[in-house]
Task: structure prediction
Amino acid sequence: MKRISQYGIYLFLLVILSACSGGKNDRDSILEYWSSNNIGEITFSQKIVEAWNLEHPGSTLKFQPIPEGQSSEEIILAAVVGKTTPDIYSNMWQGSVEFYAKANVLIPLDTLAGFDNFIRDRCDSLTIREITSSDGHIYQFPWKINPFMTIYNKKFLAELNLDSLPETYTEYLNAAEKFKKDLTGDGYIDQWFGNTSVRLVWYQRLFNFYTLYIAASDGLPLIKNNRASFNNEYAIGVFRFLQEIYKQDYFSKEDQTAGQDPFLAGKIASKFTGPWEIEYLERYKPEGFEFDYFPIPVPDDHQGPIYTYCDPKSIVIFNTCREPQLAFEFIKTMVDKKGDLLFLQSTKQLPRRKGLDTIKAYENFFNENQRLQAFVEQAKYIRGMDNCEVITEVFDIITQEYEACVLYDMKEPEKAIADAERAVNILLGNRK
Amino acid sequence: MSRMKVTKIIIYILLIGAGFSFLYPFYWMILASLTPESQLGNFNLLPLEISFENYLLMFSKIPIFRSLLNSTVVAASSTTGVLVFGSMIGYALAKRDFRGRNALFFIIIFTMTLPFQITLIPNYVLMVKFRWVDTFAALIIPSLNSAFAIIMFRQVFKGIPDDLIDAARVDGCGELRIIFQVLWPNIIPTIITVGIITFMNSWNEVLWPLIVIRDENLMTMPQLVTLFAVGGRSDAQLGVKLASAVLLALPIIIAYSIFQKHFIRSMASSGLKG
Amino acid sequence: MRIQSKKSMISYFLVSPYLVHLILFVSFPVIFSVVLTFHKWNIISEMQYVGIDNYTRLFQDRLFWKSLVNTLTFLVVHIPLQIIIALALAYILDQKIFCKGFFRATFFLPVVISGVVVTMIWKQLYGVDTGLINKLLVSIGLGKVEWMTNKNIAMISIAIMATWKNVGLYVILFLVGLQSVPQRYYEAADVEGASRWQKFRYITLPAINPTIFMVTILSTIGGFNLFIEPYIMTGGGPLNSTLSAVLYIYKQAFEFYHMGYSASLGLIFAFIIMMVVVIQKYMIEKDE
Result:
């Protein structure tokens, strides 16, 4: 018995000790790079890293996809907290950068040699202004975008006999009215014109409120000079538009995460989504299912091109990196003309490079991938995210008002937006 | 029919109705997990089509068996620690005299009344400082002691006559030996009770793992299933989510079918003591 | 003297595991919790002293008070429902019934199953358009109920689910209580010609009062700890009607990284819980 208990204690200690060995792994490479878990991005990263390692045998790079977890944001935060961050990370949401920049865990890229010219070559001035932090430095390299548009079921829209694809709020609402049906006769609608998330998590507003707001306002920011700047006709208009949709039962109020994908099942005719949907649909679509994209709906009096939200992701260098200049040299190989083309081919996502449709070397690719044309066109009019370290809370505040006004019709849009503005200003005012 | 009979019939109907309402949801869950996604809205009592596609899809998306292993390791370690340490301290409180004994006892009682809400965040911060975030240490070490277990062991040890212990001492047994070799065989019901309750609570614990574990390969099973249920990786497919829920429930259901009586008895006595 | 100190050493050795635990995971957190409430911290930056800012914010925080009201709503529905149903089922099972063990085990099954599984099942049962409960209601001619989408009903729905999950445990506790009533009391009552109801009201009920109190206290503590059910079901909605206090604390800490504020929420909430439990215990003692 004594021996058993002895062994038991040893085993026990062993378990504890082995558990304690969580921490930074030994590397014999100079640099470590994390990508996302997207298959295409993993393929791309492997190729780029291989090419680099061949060229730079003395300063090799180790690559791994980000460890799996609930969300990549959480994993990165845990890594920052545990001081186990990689040197380079490529899937940072543009909105998160300010939070980490303010905490001094990112390298200011503009202090690295060759940065200015390189970025001006690839990105337009609007983008550069957007990604510049409040302290004047630039902590991220804009990598890729997925512009949001409206996907639609070709057959359904054709059956509606509309003059043209719905562009404005009124046209959209009219089409929705025509499409809404109670197929089973049980008094409840089973066919809706579209659907967007009713979940109350802050980032779900990116798919509905924020995208529509960008389209309506031609890309106005939510936060300006550390104050809320969205109390305007555009935000109110978006709330009113969505409120009307739910009032008239044009979208279902239920969380549609039960059962089959509603777009594929023919329960809805349209959806606000991005190019990533293409591959998923191609894989699961039933016979004869055809779809295409048109821009996000805008207010009736809207003029000019239609902007949209682009879900931008950037590349960052963490301050645990001992060779930031070297890291930047590697990043350059990811996003130069050659790198971007490889990226396009591997992932079918768009790099955040200006003038995609003017580059000769890319012509073949776009000819073979007609579907992406709409997005390339749209990529000329995109907006990312404001630089605000509490942007998630801002969206949470907007979500609260969204729920009250849009989903439950308990407030007028003017009041909801005003309340959101007030709450956001209190939040921002507390930042000392 | 006599009034007695009518009453009896009503009672049986009520009981069967109640029993049905307690069993049907689980039955439905298992059935739904075995039904292909497209048919999910359609069946009620009997299966329409049996298919394992949900399970196969789930296996490819989340490391469910890994999490099963994690949960087992954590729960087993925690239970072992609680039983061993709980006995040690319960014994010391019951059978040994030392300075501060009463004070310690009252402190233990007091900690049982302390709501976890107050210690939750600081404990997380502690995990950060110790670099235990994303390690088993964070899951196991804080759960190695249980005030409840200590109280239970103290109570049962108090009921054991001192002569037994004195006799063992005369035989030359050290204190630890007394506890584990001499006393334990006499308190099997208590060991089972504390063991079952600790294991069950550890197995079902989800808030703490959600806070301290981010790496998917270290997640416990309820944690993994929770994130799978509310997250995007299940692609909004209900059947797949339910498949993961079935797997989560399965070990407990199996253990319960075998050890029913012990489960019930344990939790009942714990409730009474509480 | 040496033997005494050796004896003490052994005793201290025996209790040392718990002492370590007490210092590390109880004392330090409580103290640090208080300290943290006077600071602002988002884990990755430096802690910043802010005095009583967190407390002033807390008292004006509409959501925090709402979460307390939500918890109260939950308790007000859950506790009576729990007592009545558990007592009824226990009373029935206390009679001469076939397969008593089977029913007992069936009622107890949800108690041991993880709350995660229970919530996922009920999330489907409660679906407005696709849920089984509404399908059943519609098929017998009643209308659909907005179980989880109506702000006045959502928390009640969760309370019903929580009752379903836990009632088995309380059935067992009530059974123990019922079976402890001496048979001769009933026999004496029978001689007096008492009705079934009278026997229940004057013999049974008083005898199981202690059990009723215990069920109340246990259910109260369970209600205060409500987290995973609203987390999975609704994320706190609709309109924050299912936002439990623990869920709010979790969101503040791990969605927005307001560590200091979250610690102050935890502290105040823990204080409220302890007050409620003390009041309940006092009322029981007074009764006895």
